[in-house]
Write a structure and sequence with these properties.
CATH topology of the largest domain: Dihydrodipicolinate Reductase, domain 2
Number of helices: 8
Number of strands: 15
Largest sheet: 7 strands, parallel
Distance between the termini: 10 Å
Radius of gyration: 20 Å
CATH superfamily of the largest domain: Dihydrodipicolinate Reductase, domain 2
Helix content: 25-40%
Structural class: alpha/beta
Strand content: 15-25%
Strand order of the largest sheet: 5-2-1-6-7-9-8
Order of helices and strands: HEHEEEEEHEEEHEHHEEHEEEH
CATH architecture of the largest domain: 2-Layer Sandwich
Length: about 325
């Protein structure tokens, strides 16, 4: 790593550049015009030599290897869990500054921009961008807790197929086409037919729930009221949807007014919004249907939706930008 270059125009590697998350990250880096010295796109041997475009230039995809990280200042890992787990198992060294979005890598420093302590960031280190659902739950509950105090909360997460990467989206698409043609819907990624269906996926859901809870503890602290979390696999391609129930000593009008003023959130009042399709491409948390449940004083429910790929990529880039632009950080 070159410390001076890191501040001006770092050399960046994206591991898993053809994944859904890798493509989103690459697009956001290009649109934000982040100063980059050199971009290296890394993939498995299957995709080696693939031509990809970035900032008007053609990039040739290279094979993931420790040697490929020579002269790299920031490495984003956006590959699938199997690839990440294989790299970890190989014992290969990670780059000096690694930002992991895979949810399958090492136990690093979990960092959520705007909530985690910036003092935990270093010019060198292994940083984990939280699960996109943890980002949404953490930001929403933390903002409400800091303003009104959240006494308790429960949230149901509707997970999209893209949470499983390219293979999840492909399987949902193939199942949909097969069923529309009156053919059997095969499954390898999901526990059964996901198309036109909802799956509880006990094992996968339990792993997701535990991961999110652990990351929220790391970001918010264990004194923060831990929400009860239930994850369900929904037959949608992109974007997380959330059904929140919480006890907050405030009126519905107060909650609505506070969230509407906060730039992190977007209030949607249309009868058709927010929806998983409608929020694609947005890095905000879209909220609607804030209402009192009538179960007890301060009992509220609300609906929230967020683009899982965009939310994850945005947080990872904000981590990199802070390290690049902040006053001199320790290595």
């Amino acid at each position: 790593m070159d410390q001076q270059r890191l501040r001006k125009a770092p050399n960046i590697a994206i591991v898993g550049s053809t994944s859904l998350l890798g493509k989103e990250l690459r697009e956001m880096l290009e649109n934000r015009a982040l100063p980059i010295g050199r971009l290296v796109l890394l993939e498995t041997e299957e995709y080696a030599g693939l031509l990809q475009e970035f900032a008007g230039e053609i990039q040739i995809t290279q094979v993931i290897s420790p040697k490929a990280f020579d002269d790299i200042d920031i490495a984003f890992f956006t590959c699938g869990p199997e690839i990440m787990q294989a790299y970890v198992a190989s014992g290969a060294k990670f780059p000096d500054l690694t930002i992991d979005l895979t949810q399958a890598g090492l136990e690093g420093t979990v960092y959520l921009h705007g909530m985690s302590d910036p003092k935990s960031l270093r010019a060198q280190g292994y940083f984990v961008s939280p699960h996109p659902a943890a980002i949404v739950i953490g930001r929403l509950l933390a903002h409400l807790h800091n303003k009104f105090v959240v006494e308790s909360a429960a949230v149901t997460i509707l997970e999209p197929a893209s949470a499983r990467g390219n293979i999840g989206v492909d399987e949902l698409q193939e199942q949909t086409v097969s069923l529309l043609n009156f053919q059997q819907a095969d499954h390898k990624v999901f526990a059964g037919q996901l198309a036109f269906n909802v799956l509880p996926e006990p094992e996968a859901s339990a792993r997701t729930e535990q991961r999110i809870t652990k990351q929220l503890d790391a970001v918010c602290g264990k004194t923060f009221p831990r929400p009860a979390i239930t994850a369900i696999q929904a037959p949608v391609f992109h974007s997380h949807a959330f059904s929140f129930f919480m006890n907050v000593p405030a009126s519905t009008e107060e909650l609505t007014a506070y969230l509407a003023e906060n730039p992190v959130f977007a209030m949607d009042h249309s009868s058709a919004k927010p929806s998983p399709v409608g929020v694609v491409g947005s890095d905000k948390i879209h909220i609607a249907r804030i209402r009192s449940t009538g179960a007890s004083a301060g009992s509220h429910a609300l609906w929230a939706v967020a683009d899982n790929l965009r939310i994850a990529a945005s947080n990872a880039i904000l981590i990199a930008e802070y390290i690049m632009l902040a006053p001199v950080l320790e290595a």
